[in-house]
Structures are given as C-alpha cells and as structure tokens.
C-alpha cells in the first residue's frame, strides 16, 4: 500500500547543494546561448523570424544533449 506520509529525510546538504548548482548551470547553458543568438541576430539584421528560428534550433539541440551535459557537469562538481 502507498503511504504518502512517509518522507525521505536522509538527503545530505552536500547532495542538495550539488543538485542546485548543476540545475543552475544547466538552466544557463540551455537559455543564454539561444537567447544571445536570437537577440544578436535580431538587433544586427532586424529579422525577428530568422533570429527566433536559429535561437529555438540551438535551444532544442542543447536539450537533445541534456543528459550528457548533465553528467559532465555533475562529474565536474563532484
């Protein structure tokens, strides 16, 4: 039977801090380069659609490699 009142409380502070740092780095890797490309293309050429397509493309390519990126960052942080 499922007991929802049982909570896991044996997570160390080191694991929590490592998780927060890895998540923060992943968020920056997934958002800042595509956003920079989008804004750079938009302000240099004035083409909103081209900037959006390239920005979304880079964003989804980095998402495709998110597992590998996460493992590499976790390995570096440990």
UniProtKB/TrEMBL annotation:
Keywords attached to this entry: Membrane, Transmembrane, Transmembrane helix
Superkingdom to which the source organism belongs: Archaea
Membrane-spanning parts: 20-42, 48-67
Designated name of the protein: Uncharacterized protein
